Amino acid sequence: MKYLHRLAGIAAAFCIMIVLFITSVEAVVYWTPGYFEKEYTKYNVLDSLPAMTMDDLLHVTDEMMDYLRGDREDLHVETTMGGQQREFFNEREIAHMEDVQVLFLKAMSIRTVCLVLTVLLLAFMAATKARMRKVLPPSLCMGTGLFFGLITALGLIISTDFSRYFIMFHHIFFTNDLWILDPSTDMLINIVPEGFFMDTAARIALLFGSLSLILFGICLFLTIKNQKKAA
């Protein structure tokens, strides 16, 4: 039973790490004040759009982000461009963003499942009389370390050629070529250039890494403390 308890603790750690990773993504793109405006300014996004103001672009962005998490029914967003009222996204972009929304909502569902699994695993350990103080901290340490090591290795591989792996990501997660957009007709690719995705990935990695180290540090502290008490 001891090894089963340890395995449950490691599995719980993996679930917690998945929750932290998905939450890090959400925190960067939804909870960081002025993030999109800073990125748009950094990459001179307005220069590639026909006479559009930053306020109008931020409004379109807010509507797009609301759509991704299901707070808006469609992506038919009216705005002013070149002195004329028009829809910002064309049909191809809307179709692609429908696919993106599916991925985003699935990620949110995975986070919920992981939270539930974590509770169930901890409840199982408690119900089977696991020595929580002795077993849980080192198990969480091990699981956190393993997961973080895998993610770090993957991140290092991706950093060697971001463009290549960015394209590979789209081939894996999308079953069509709607993600291949034309800057002359599709506004979406103009407002989120590759540099935007690189900056976003770096911010997510920094936040996730910080949260992971905090979790690992707490578990390590408790592990060492319990070992000293037992000595």
TrEMBL record:
Protein's name according to its UniProt entry: TIGR01906 family membrane protein
Classification of source organism: Bacteria, Bacillati, Bacillota, Clostridia, Lachnospirales
Transmembrane spans: 108-127, 139-158, 204-224
Alphabetical UniProt keywords: Membrane, Transmembrane, Transmembrane helix
